[in-house]
Amino acid sequence: MTLSAALSRQSNDASFPTLWDELHWRGLIHVSTNEDELRTLLQGDPITYYCGFDPTAPSLHLGNLVQLLLLRRLQLAGHKPLGLVGGSTGLIGDPKPTAERTLNERETVAEWVGYLGNQISKFLAFEGDNSARLVNNLDWTAPMSAIDFLREIGKHFRVGTMLKKDAVSARLNSEAGISYTEFSYQVLQGLDFLELYREYGCVLQTGGSDQWGNLTSGTDLIHKVEGVSAHAIGTPLITNSDGTKFGKSEGNAVWLDSSLTSPYAMYQFWLNTLDADVIARLKVFTFLTREEIDEYAAKVETEPFKREAQRRLAWDVTALVHGDAAADAVVAASAALFGNGDLFALDAETVRGATQELPSARVAAGDLVAGALVETGLCSSLSEARRAIAQGGVAVNNIAVSDEAATLDSATLAGGVSVLRRGKKTLAALVFSA
User: Fold this and answer.
1) Predicted confidence band of residue 108 (pLDDT cuts 50, 70, 90)
2) pTM, entire model
């Protein structure tokens, strides 16, 4: 397997004295076990480390991307990553703060395990001396009987300690309470770390800081059972400077699967990053050096209207997730939608991604353009639509419409869609009936 273009461009920043210093500068360390030991460990001989991803959905999302990029940065320093897909823990789900999870069918979880494994594989190198490896915790939990689980693993956990974990405590204080199923999640995650330590010599687990109780369940278990120290790193939960939750778009997660979040939507999400957030996002989600990021920080201060930092962030992350060609295509689509490119040169997938969130109407060749303006909501009435056309502010597929009685023709973009524009920035999609 050859490295992708994105992977081949990646490197850690040599201007930092240690990897630990760079991780801190990028804002990737919120909490950890012994910091001095970790600094020394990461500067020494290669270690094996892991992060787990539960298949509670058919795709990973931007929050997971933080972990994938941390795994990659550690791999670039010579360490050996394990990407764990939770075939067993995904059947339970870690406790949410407010309510019990709905359990998915076994067949669904197994299918999602495959999806997530394929996604993880895009962000790590599976060749070389420190090649990545995918593992599934169902492989070691499925053969274990309940009695063996309780005798060999459960006896090392103290209920008082388990009750103090943030996720458990929050649920105990909620109206929903917590089931024994979700209460046992931290024991299963601890078992994962122990198993990976025994099988691969794994001594470090990474995860979100909201998972800290689950992360330390593994370090504690290894210390009790094996008498050695293992480590954990908790990354910060990323929020926007205005306090809103990062990675949400109108209530929906931004997914890494292009069928759930198109490359165009992904690009637009990053392009809309606030000035106050963009430098922090460049640090976490790109491999730009400190010097390069400082240059973008200066541009945000002196020329924010150019949005150069946002455009670089949007291209880099879209290329990382979907490839260079997809990133270039959505840049071309963004320009073409607003009259600065050839809409007819775009492929059907790019057109679909670029128009799927626009207001739309189903039309047919021969319909009035004025009527389409009303149907899409770009104008409130036919008289307003005719005035907009007469004033020269309407275009179909970037071709200006000047006749108030103009009709739509059959020259659609790829996929049977046309773009209706009023003014410079108000757009709608026209879906032509077959």
Assistant:
1) very high
2) 0.91
